[in-house]
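Hi F.,

I've been meaning to write this up properly since the lab meeting, where we talked about keeping a consistent format for the predictions we share between groups. The idea is simple: the sequence comes first, exactly as it goes in, then the structure tokens exactly as they come out, then a line or two of notes. No screenshots and no reformatting. I'm using this chain as the first example so we have something concrete to point to.
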Amino acid sequence: MDNRSDSQDTKSGSSISGLYERDLCSISKLAHLRFFPLAVTGGKGATLRGDDGRNLIDFSASWGAASLGHSHTAICSAVNSALSDQAGASYLSSANLPTVELAEMLLARTPARAAGRVWFGHSGSDANETANRIISAATGRPGILAFEGAYHGGTSGSMAFSGHPFQRATRSEHLTLIPYPASRSQACEALACIDEAISARPGYYGAFFIEPIQADGGLLVPPAGFFEAVQQRCRDNAVLLVSDEVKVGVGRTGVFHAFENFNIEPDVVIMGKGLGGGLPISAVIGPEWLMNFSTGFSLQTLHGNPVCAAAAISVLQTIDGEKLLRNANDVGTYIHDRLNFLATQQPAIHEVRGIGLALGIELRDDILPGVSGKDLAARVVFRAFQLGLVVYYVGIHSNVIELTPALNITKSIAVQGLAILEKALSDVVEGEVEPNGCQDFSGW
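Output, unedited:
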């Protein structure tokens, strides 16, 4: 699909800008996931600056990767210091101080069951792929359990055990997908599927990959007690429980690890996105017997980059120093409550869900004649962009508006962003804007 719009209203953010046009003429679309013609030249905190001069409130934080917002002084200082006296560019053939310090900090924050050793990579995708490969090799069990709708990465190896319909990849022959429950009755059905899979092939499954909140599947939160029951089945059958915290961890839900919301203790923890505060770094944390199974098992030259590690250290220190767990909980609760009230007034909203600053707004089908929830979401985020808000949509039906702002977003900025989102919803539902432009963006 050609990502072009014919709109001429530059000041409303509808038209293709000079920078966006240059992007289209020089950058491959293989990695494009575009919802509107956003072209960014800078940013501060929870705002971005477009090349048209507009300041936009950012409710995405680059899919949660910019965990401290944009241009945070702690990250700037840490990166500048690391570059001014650079301890190499890798940890493959030498130890470097930032990477070791970061590993020690992560181990200190991880429950004892998983707190053995840390492997560092570039993204959640390579981290999940590495975890799956090493578990299969170390246990001799190739089987993988995961959930329908799960997104565990964009490499061939991580897509092989993901369950999101958006992905175009061959799934592993060793994968069994379990329905993700949204209610207690569905939880019973999901547990029955797990029991059936394990009993049918005893000793076959080595790992069960979960997302504590299924993010790209639609910000789905499981019923109380479900993950505890999943964990018990893993323990009873020597299956390693792997918590994919890439999008919803690192303080996003008001606790450091998202799994802490569900009274479980995984065997392996996967981290990425917000860990680097905008720089590429990921981590697999697991027991020593697993993580030291084989030397040189998973490596790339820039793994363990000290500059990225220094940025991650600053993220962890800032989360503590600025009390961002509390902020994620407080501001997240405010946003959640405000959206719940909006849902009583706005019939387009089917449900609001999530924890902390990982929130989703599911939209209904047919609020407008012949318009699906997916098309409605596309129109709403496009209109929000015109009005000055960056927000995207996710879900297996592409009908859930996702809110993952920076952990240090202030209540005042949240209020402004919510006002824009409310108006965007109203404008679209009441037919005050034409769907010009958004149909040229394939989105999610």
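Notes:
The longest strand covers residues 349-355.
The domain at 73-321 is CATH 3.40.640.10 (Aspartate Aminotransferase; domain 2).

If this format works for you, I'll send the rest the same way.

G.
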